[in-house]
Design a protein that fits this description.
There is one protein chain. With about 950 residues, the protein is α+β, with helices and mostly antiparallel strands. Among the domains are: about 170 residues, no CATH class; about 140 residues, Pleckstrin-homology domain (PH domain)/Phosphotyrosine-binding domain (PTB) (PH-domain like), CATH 2.30.29; about 160 residues, PH-domain like (Roll). The protein is about 30% helix and about 25% strand. Strand 32 and strand 33 form a beta hairpin.
């Protein structure tokens, strides 16, 4: 039996960054039932079909680990998931590359000027015939697949194909930007970006970033607006290219054909080495800045692509267009061993001459091969580094430990921040290598968010399994019994724990997990009573059960077919999607870190209990409303409470949450598991804050600075100034990147939904491309703070199509900044702050703690190239007319309107360190959404015309 699954499958992508044990621990859940029979009456059809039928079989969420240029790959050629689990360990055993090894070597890395996925870079490259053994093996495997499957069915959209072909032409021409193969007006690179334009009368040198901008007084000429940014070949004096800003999505592939487009570019920037400069303005959010000199006036263009990888790619490309050259060495630090590795010509495999020559001629297979070669660049760097370390016997123990751990990767380090090389950054490593100017590239074991904690008494606590199920709430959000005509109001809800949050949602939106074993009744949907009988009181949900150190259903000894394994993979993905949907549909949460005790019902703990009788007046098997109904009205009133089924959450503020389960046995299960969850997550949250404090103290001591200077150093220092700083891989872990948990990041922020409003403190949860905002404080009509037991949801921001910027660029959005005068620190406006909930302190300036999420408000209709192909030859349309085919109906798509101002949602973190966490996490989610849209065929919603 074959134990293989396609590398683009959901489980394969999870195993790329995590071990099977970690997948098991972060994917398991416990359902405390049963499922109410009344709920099944209105939801059983949809619920049963979703879990029992083929509804779980859906398109994969991730792309392939090693993308192939053909469509369907035979299962015999796909690598097994067990091989993927042991891949990094195999690297340690099979790598044998030689290079220069130097302990504590100084940085020899400079900008490697090229581009990635869609660019035509004007760079000087010397393709090398040498290719490493690993890449030769990959190329041979791809060739064998192509030979078996026939002609590769590679499909690029028009924009990508034109830009990839232009890029291949320059690479094949060895970087000769003045090559006659590229004519004036031809498109070289294109992306949709957020642009702001400033002007200044001050002189700016060859470098301009956040640190330099502190001493430059500027005036905003044009606010943030979204444009299509296009770079074209353009010969003028010493310039060889020009940058154009368009307010239209219909772009001409050649500037000489201006009559084909109605709109001309709003602004043009001639990329002259004498009058134009480019720099990476922000090392955090990767905003670019291009400035031009015209007389005594300097115009500064801030360019913000959606993806950080795309931003750095443009930076490399623009510097090459301005005549910058690259070096042929790359330094990789290994902090665990305190050594530095210097790689000579690390991208020789990407520069394969024959492939580039074929790609330059427009061969689809060669274009796909060139893209795949580039996507393997990061893996080859890891392989070469491991091979170099293997040559030194002193590192044998560490390498063996890494092989046992099983996951090693690359990360960019700057001060206390780690940016893991993954996804788009990994696939376009060749272009994003320009980050070496501000970051250090490091080889590290991949760390994940801890699954254990230490209690106050010193005992080790393992992370308990999350729980979920139906409950009846008998108290209000203020922890009091609501009275209506002398009766207690109760509400039926579905509760589910996600990290330290016990989220609740209306039963109409609930999606309980299916029982482990459910009979299939010949395609007929069982009745509500039959389904209720098949569901046990409590059962475990474990998509990745373990057999030894491997996932049980991936073991060859299990005797499962490939189709059965694919079904289990689909079930695991469906379970992950179910958890995301519940979190995104929640109405609020109770923070388990605020729970002091979980106990049985104590009659008399709440005023008015003397009027409540003992009984079971509240029916558990209720009939829930349909999902499309609001379901927000109270479910009913009662004068009886069954004490044997009821338990209480005693909060640290003295309030009480009273909940009622199905029966006494279910109540005991809820009490036991909630106690463990509250105890663990209270300890885990304390350890997280202690780690944040420890990292800061360690860096303050290593750099000999105080807390006031820490924010300046963290934001503006050059990398050589902070080379001795420490970055924690546990703080910047891989869980959010690999989506191990539904919650990517959570915490307290201060939100200003519009520019001319005030900041409000609010808990925020980042999950699945959304920012969920909750109410932090409940107040009376007079504004007085009231005690509360839960946090209601007040807003949700979808990050699809959004842009993110931070730092000094947010000063125009702050409007009302802290202008306190500190006599001890002239020029410093922020006074020291302490947050009593966890003892965290901060003296950071407002701009250093702020980030802005920008999204378009105005929409317009657009005929996407998905439906209208203006590049298609006229013969195709003539042939259709001859066949008598009717004209295809034009389909319109709703897109953001370019060239107009949007809406900015301003957030402030408690400190610079916490802001960096949020910016990095939100950027990962934005890039994931952009990649998913591109795979779905949406892309940039642009139409190219000749």
């Amino acid at each position: 039996m074959s134990s293989s699954l396609p590398p683009e499958s959901y489980t394969a992508r999870r195993l790329e960054h995590a071990t099977p044990e970690h997948l098991h621990l972060t994917s398991r859940r416990t359902f405390i039932g049963p499922i109410p029979e009344g709920w099944l009456k209105n939801h059983r059809k949809q619920w049963y079909r979703h879990y029992i039928s083929n509804g779980v079989r859906r398109a994969p969420t991730f792309t392939a680990v090693t993308p192939l240029p053909s469509g369907d790959v035979p299962s015999a050629q796909a690598p097994s998931l067990q091989a993927i689990e042991e891949r990094d360990g195999s690297m340690l055993r099979n790598s044998g590359q030689s290079a220069v090894l130097s302990q504590n070597a100084t940085s020899q890395t400079s900008l490697l000027e090229s581009s990635g996925r869609q660019a035509a870079e004007p760079e000087e490259m010397a393709p090398s015939a040498a290719s490493t053994q690993a890449r030769q093996s990959d190329r041979s495997r791809i060739n064998r697949v192509i030979a078996k499957t026939g002609t590769a069915k590679v499909r690029f959209n028009d924009a990508a194909k034109i830009q990839l072909r232009a890029r291949a032409q320059r690479l094949a021409a060895k970087g000769n930007f003045r090559s006659n193969k590229v004519k004036d007006g031809e498109m070289l690179k294109m992306d949709r970006m957020l642009v702001r334009i400033d002007i200044t009368q001050q002189a700016i040198g060859a470098d301009f970033d956040e640190k330099v901008s502190l001493g430059v007084e500027t005036r905003t000429l044009d606010k943030w607006r979204e444009f299509m940014v296009v770079c074209r070949k353009h010969s003028e004096d010493d310039a060889q290219s020009i940058l154009q800003l368009y307010q239209t999505r219909v772009i001409s592939t050649n500037a000489t054909e201006e009559s084909k487009t109605k709109k001309k570019p709003k602004a043009q920037i001639v990329l002259s080495p004498r009058k134009t400069w480019v720099d990476l303005y922000s090392s955090l959010d990767k905003t670019l800045c291009v400035w031009t000199l015209e007389g005594s006036r300097t115009t500064i263009y801030y360019l913000r692509p959606q993806s950080g990888a795309t931003s750095v790619e443009w930076y490399t490309f623009l510097r090459a267009a301005l005549g910058m050259r690259r070096t042929t060495t790359l330094q990789v630090n290994v902090p665990d061993l305190n050594v530095s590795l210097r790689l000579e010509d690390p991208f020789s495999n990407v520069e394969h001459e024959k492939t580039l020559a074929s790609a330059a001629e427009g061969n689809d297979e060669a274009l796909a091969q060139a893209v795949n070669d580039e996507k393997g660049a990061a893996g080859m760097i890891v392989s070469r580094c491991l091979g170099m370390l293997k040559e030194s016997p002193e590192w044998t123990d560490v390498l063996n430990a890494w092989a046992q751990y099983g996951r090693v990767g690359l990360a960019w380090k700057r001060y206390d921040r780690l940016e893991w090389v993954h996804g788009a950054v990994e696939q376009r490593m060749y272009g994003t290598i320009a980050m070496a100017k501000t970051h250090d590239l490091e080889l590290r074991p991949k760390h994940h968010y801890p699954v254990s904690a230490i209690s106050r008494k010193g005992a080790k606590l393992e992370e308990p399994s999350p729980i979920e199920g139906f409950l009846i709430r008998l108290t209000s959000e203020t922890g009091q019994e609501q009275k209506r005509l002398g009766r207690t109001v109760f509400k039926r809800l579905y509760f589910a724990s996600q990290n330290q949050y016990l989220v609740f949602l209306r039963p109409a939106r609930a999606r309980p997990p299916p029982p482990p074993k459910m009979d299939v009744m010949n395609g007929n949907i069982p009745s509500s009573a039959q389904l209720a009988q098949q569901t046990s009181l409590t059962y475990e949900v474990d998509p990745y059960s373990l057999s030894g150190q491997h996932i049980s259903w991936l073991n060859a000894g299990e005797g499962m077919t490939t189709e059965e394994r694919a079904a289990r993979d689909n079930e695991a993905e469906a379970e992950a999607r179910r958890n995301y949907d519940m979190l995104l549909g929640c109405d609020g949460f109770i923070n388990l870190c605020d729970v002091q005790r979980v106990r049985k019902m104590h009659k008399g703990a709440i005023p008015g209990d003397q009027n409540i009788d003992q009984g079971s007046d509240v029916d558990f098997d209720f009939e829930a409303p349909l999902p499309e109904s609001s379901g927000r009205i109270p479910d009913g009133t009662t004068s009886e409470v069954d004490e044997d089924r009821t338990f209480e959450l005693v909060m640290k503020n003295g309030m009480i949450v009273r909940l009622q389960a199905y029966n006494k046995s279910a109540r005991q299960e809820w009490i036991k598991r909630l106690r463990n969850l509250a105890k663990y997550w209270t300890s885990r949250a304390k350890e997280d804050m202690d780690m944040l404090k420890s990292v800061r103290e360690q860096n303050l001591e290593a750099l000999q600075i105080d807390e006031r200077a820490e924010a300046m150093v963290g934001s503006f220092a050059y990398k050589w100034e902070v080379s001795q700083s420490y970055a924690s891989p546990t703080m910047y872990n891989m869980c959010g990147i690999s989506q191990c948990r539904p919650i990517h990041l959570s915490g307290l922020l201060f939100r200003k939904p519009r520019r001319h409003t005030t900041f409000t403190r609010c808990p925020v949860i980042l999950s699945d491309g959304h920012l969920l905002v909750f109410q932090d404080t409940l107040r009376s009509r007079s504004g007085r703070k009231k005690k509360q037991v839960q946090h209601e949801r007040v807003a949700a921001i979808s990050l699809a199509g959004c842009y993110l910027y931070s730092g000094l660029l947010t000063e125009n959005d702050l409007l009302y900044q802290n202008r306190t005068f500190d006599s001890d620190m002239p020029g410093h406006h922020a006074l020291p702050r302490v947050y009593l909930e966890d003892g965290w302190t901060s003296t950071d300036e407002d701009a250093m703690t702020t980030f802005v999420v920008w999204h378009a408000q105005s929409k317009s209709w657009f005929r996407s190239s998905q439906y209208v192909d203006d590049v298609r030859k006229k013969e195709d349309s003539d042939a259709k007319e001859l066949k008598g085919e009717g004209r295809k109906t034009t389909k319109l798509k709703r897109v953001s309107q370019l060239g107009v101002t949007g809406r900015s949602v301003v957030f402030k973190a408690r400190s610079r360190a916490e802001r960096d966490h949020w910016v990095m996490a939100i950027q990962v989610e934005i890039e994931r959404l952009a990649a998913a849209e591109e795979r779905a065929g949406g892309g940039q919603d642009v139409r190219l015309v000749e």
